[in-house]
Structure formats: structure tokens, C-alpha cells
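can u do me a favor
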């Protein structure tokens, strides 16, 4: 069986202990920073802001896509209005506004 006795000198052992203490102290300092309430709150705020930014970004892209799709229905590639689509929608809108105005007038009168 091999000899497992430590062949280091006392000075080497003390130097090793010093190095290990320094590493342990650094590790404890890092843990202290990570579990500090200000760090936890800061990390949580950063995650929330990131999630909000991502959500708003996706919402913006989605709304932009819908607006572009609707615009494409009423305007041709050259930017000219498609009268065969604009006129019926305008007539429906005018009719709805007229009905709403008539209903409001009847409630008052």
C-alpha cells in the first residue's frame, strides 16, 4: 500500500492554508453581495424591466404588422387609395356615426 503521509513542510502547509483562506474569503464576499437585499431587488427590477421591454417590443411588432396589413387592404403598392375598398368602408362609417347621433338625439329629446 502507498504511503499517504503529507510530505509538505510546515511553511508549505501554512502557505496553502493562507491561500485557501483567501479563496474562502473571496467566495464569502461574493455570496454576501449576491444575497444582499439591494442586489436581490436590483436583479428583480432588471428582470422585470427586461420582460416589459420584450413584451412591449413584441406588441409593437404585432401592432405594426396589423397596421401594415390593414393599410395594404386600402392602399395599393404605389400609395394610391383603393377606391373600391375605401368608399364602402367610408359609407359604413358615416352610417354608424349617423345612427349614433340619431340615438343620442332621441335620448336627449
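np, heres the sequence
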Amino acid at each position: 500500500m502507498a504511503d499517504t503521509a503529507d510530505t509538505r513542510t510546515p511553511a508549505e502547509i501554512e502557505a496553502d492554508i493562507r491561500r485557501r483562506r483567501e479563496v474562502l474569503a473571496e467566495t464569502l464576499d461574493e455570496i454576501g453581495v449576491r444575497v444582499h437585499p439591494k442586489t436581490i431587488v436590483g436583479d428583480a427590477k432588471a428582470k422585470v424591466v427586461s420582460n416589459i421591454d420584450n413584451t412591449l417590443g413584441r406588441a409593437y411588432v404585432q401592432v405594426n404588422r396589423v397596421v401594415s396589413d390593414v393599410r395594404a387592404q386600402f392602399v395599393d403598392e404605389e400609395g394610391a387609395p383603393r377606391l373600391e375598398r375605401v368608399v364602402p368602408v367610408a359609407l359604413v362609417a358615416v352610417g354608424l356615426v349617423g345612427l349614433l347621433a340619431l340615438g343620442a338625439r332621441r335620448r336627449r329629446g
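The two ends are 110 Å apart (CA to CA). hope that helps!!
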